[in-house]
Specification:
Largest sheet: 8 strands, mixed
Strand content: 5-15%
Helix content: 25-40%
Distance between the termini: 18 Å
Structural class: alpha/beta
Number of strands: 8
Radius of gyration: 18 Å
Shape: globular
Length: 306
């Protein structure tokens, strides 16, 4: 893969030749997931669309120029996640944890977790640990600038936000969890002697269908105006993911747009909040996530990337 870290006008035309590479992208049927999957396939990768709706996934994959396959995965159902992981047998060069839900009215996953935390964090946490023995290069997890919103923190005393639920607060917690997960995953990979890297990315302000399920007309109107006048399109929004997936970056790196407020621009290394940089909280979240999902970091006998 390429080793440049020059971000000047970096776009998908500067992807390295990915022939022989296998990439797995969750939520690849739409938005930045589809755009990233399409770009990876055009660069020569075989791309696995891991999607909840197989028919929609097949329709999306049919629009891609390159090698693809579609497999069913429902991140809001740990049975589905476990079945997916236990059935997997192929090497994975790039695992891209892209799928997510945003600012939903209160909902629960099939396992009873708050939907945004359960899908955006716990589903990907379980999937990643199940697939790690097959990952050879890196894990990219898509977070968001929303990890900085308000007093965003991991509410260990009430992870499902049963006492104080807001769509915005739940989303912020889930995106903060994505960054803490990446931090602790990289620590464990390094400690185990693995060459696999865990990195994170965020799309900036990107206009996608992720914003269409809030159940609130005023929020929809606000987002529609923002999408029209301020947002990047999904192709620009996918660039940080593609950059994180293919460039020679340190483990635990975080990539986002380099423009004002990280809302748009070329992909570059960006900062994160102090809450997203706390190794103690990251370890605590990992332990809690193992207990909630029943999935743990692979044993030494199955250390990934060696």
């Amino acid at each position: 893969m390429a080793t440049t870290t020059d971000t000047t006008a970096w776009d998908a035309t500067r992807l390295p030749d990915l022939s022989g590479c296998r990439a797995l992208v969750t939520g690849a049927n739409s938005g930045i997931g589809f755009t990233a999957a399409d770009a990876l396939a055009r660069a020569g990768a075989h791309v696995v669309f891991a999607v909840r709706d197989v028919e929609r996934g097949r329709a999306a994959a049919a629009r891609v120029t390159g090698s693809t396959e579609v497999r069913r995965l429902d991140l809001a159902d740990l049975v589905s996640v476990r079945e997916f992981g236990e059935a997997w047998r192929d090497p994975i060069d790039l695992l891209i944890n892209n799928a997510g839900v945003m600012m939903l009215p209160r909902q629960q996953t099939k396992d009873g977790f708050e939907m945004q935390f359960g899908t955006n964090h716990l589903g990907h946490f379980a999937l990643t640990n199940l697939l790690l023995p097959y990952v050879t290069d890196r894990v990219v997890t898509v977070s968001s600038g929303a990890h900085r919103w308000g007093d965003a923190r991991i509410r260990f005393e009430d992870l499902n936000l049963t006492r104080d639920y807001t769509p915005r607060g739940a989303y912020a917690q889930s995106k903060l969890a994505n960054l803490l997960f990446t931090l602790e995953l990289q620590r464990r990979l390094t400690e185990s002697g693995s060459a696999v890297r865990a990195v994170a990315a965020h799309p900036g302000y990107a206009a996608t269908n992720l914003q269409s399920h809030t159940g609130n007309r005023l929020v929809h109107l606000f987002l529609a105006v923002g999408n029209r006048f301020f947002a990047q399109d999904d192709r620009a929004g996918a660039l940080p993911t593609l950059y994180a997936a293919t460039q020679d970056l340190p483990g635990a790196s975080y990539v986002g747009p380099n423009g004002y407020g990280e809302m748009r621009g070329a992909p570059a290394l960006v900062g994160r909040s102090s809450a997203a940089s706390d190794p103690v909280v990251a370890r605590r979240l990992w332990t809690v996530s193992e207990d909630l999902t029943g999935v743990r970091f692979p044993s030494a006998a199955a250390t990934p990337g060696k």
